[in-house]
Amino acid sequence: MLLKSVFLITLFFFFFLFPLSTSSATSPPATVCIVGSGIAGSSLAHFLRRYSLPSSSRIIMFDRNPVVGGRMATVTIAGHTFEAGASILHPKNYHAANFTEMYKLGRKKPVRSESSISLAIWDGQRFVFKTMSVESKSPLVQKIVSLANSVYMLFHYGFSLLKMDNFVEDMLSKFLKYYESFETRPIFETVDEMLKWAGLYNLTTRTLEEELFEVGLSPLLVKELVTVITRINYGQNVDINGLAGAVSLAGSGGGLWAVEGGNWRMAAGLINSSDVELHLLEEITSISYLGKYYELSSTHGKTYTCEVSVIATPLDEVNIQFAPRISIPKRNLQHTHATFVRGLLNPVYFGMKAVSEIPELVGTIEDVDIPFSSISVLKQHNETDMTYKIFSRKVMDDALLDDIFSARTDTIRINWAAYPHYNAPEVFAPFILDSWHLYYVNAFENAASTMETSAVAAENVARLILSRLFGDGPRSSPNCSSDEEILHSDL
Ligand SMILES: *[C@@H]1O[C@H](CO)[C@@H](O)[C@H](O)[C@H]1NC(C)=O
Ligand SMILES: *[C@@H]1O[C@H](CO)[C@@H](O)[C@H](O)[C@H]1NC(C)=O
Ligand SMILES: *[C@@H]1O[C@H](CO)[C@@H](O)[C@H](O)[C@H]1NC(C)=O
Ligand SMILES: *[C@@H]1O[C@H](CO)[C@@H](O)[C@H](O)[C@H]1NC(C)=O
Ligand SMILES: *[C@@H]1O[C@H](CO)[C@@H](O)[C@H](O)[C@H]1NC(C)=O
């Protein structure tokens, strides 16, 4: 288990589950405006319907982009579709799992079994760590190689690996509390309260590095493997908060997956089945509270009135004028450049003789002179024709790519305002931005940013909205199944 799990050096994760609901059948309808159509906005719409927002209520959703999905998006190269943003789901991402099942979306496994992915850690001069890679489809050979690699990893990092595993498992077991039923799980008005209840708050007050030294990890493991993982997942080093760090390390245990055709399809399914009036390519420029309702203005020169307004996108890089003004802690987003290259790596760049000596995943340690965070093979079209994904903090310009690649036929660059730039101790914006009905789902992103954590935050905000609108809020009554409102849920 340990040997297997430590070998999985993988990407983004998100966890989850669902409670039952009831209706506020006699409550008056309300219009809810949602800014953002990513996983936060789409799952919020879903949970509002599921938890029985009065059926005649309108949900109006805005997105400045031409498509839904936010930071879930795909690129197509050589006829193959690849995740460009949020990529990987963890087996315990129960909300994502249910969304995928509800809309009959397929699950895609990583191309190779994770245990046979070869990994190397590049320090700018040489590979300080490199696993073995064997081109064999034989499960037995793969198993032997995987075992040999695990033993090598254990030899290199020692029993610190075990401590790392325990650290992650402890975080995961606490996170699972967010899937408990309404009977035992309160509605949270603040992120702080939500984290404290699950026992996760303290992790956000210190850096990952501090947490890991405290549990006794070796400095070598932190400097190499852990840093590689945080750089891949969050584009940052071990200074990120301990919770984001633990989430980042949680890609262990196997079973990582993604949605066939793209993770954005979860958002598409949720929106399509939640009776949402969707306005794409329409940016909200102001939100004004006019007493009993909000007036939203958009770039189309239109205005909308809603009793409830929800921000389901990071406020850091949007330009919305709020009246009255709101005040939230300052936060920067970490930009990650995802560069897709079809071509072939240049072994000379890595001091190798042949491309085949370069592992499928090249991670890097923290060093300002290394121009990328990771390079991984997404698809091998043939021996000299591959598709790669590179993560970097700065744009990968042509001159640099020409150094790293010996051949290059397609290049696609995406600059993501990907996740918060983490800073321990984290200071959280509130879920409730004013004293009325202006909400902010992405306040939770300072804890950790994943598809699943966004769904978990949205689920709580849906309960919060209903309880504040209708007093008692959604209760988990075992007698609710006879209520016709429940038919509104998306199952
Ligand atoms: C997912 O769906 C299953 C089956 O409908 C249900 O039992 C479970 O509670 C759901 N999980 C979550 C997290 O909602
Ligand atoms: C969090 O830290 C505080 C202050 O150091 C401590 O009193 C509390 O017990 C800790 N909580 C958990 C769950 O570890
Ligand atoms: C929306 O849902 C309907 C069924 O409710 C389905 O027929 C249709 O294909 C869905 N559209 C999209 C874009 O998912
Ligand atoms: C690999 O694919 C490229 C582009 O499709 C092609 O030009 C090349 O001949 C192929 N090489 C081999 C060895 O099949
Ligand atoms: C639920 O149903 C049971 C039996 O049908 C009944 O005894 C109970 O009072 C009901 N509870 C509520 C909250 O209506």
UniProtKB/TrEMBL annotation:
Domain Prenylcysteine lyase: 142-469
Cleaved signal peptide residues: 1-25
Record-linked InterPro entries: FAD/NAD-bd_sf, Prenylcys_lyase, Prenylcysteine_Oxase1
A single BP term in Gene Ontology: prenylcysteine catabolic process
SUPFAM superfamilies per the UniProt record, alphabetical: FAD/NAD(P)-binding domain
A GO molecular-function descriptor: prenylcysteine oxidase activity
UniProt-listed Pfam families: NAD_binding_8, Prenylcys_lyase
Gene3D superfamilies named among the record's database cross-references: FAD/NAD(P)-binding domain
Required cofactor names: FAD
UniProtKB keywords: FAD, Flavoprotein, Glycoprotein, Oxidoreductase, Signal
Family to which this protein belongs: Belongs to the prenylcysteine oxidase family.
The protein's name in its UniProt record: Prenylcysteine lyase domain-containing protein
Source organism per UniProt: Erythroxylum novogranatense
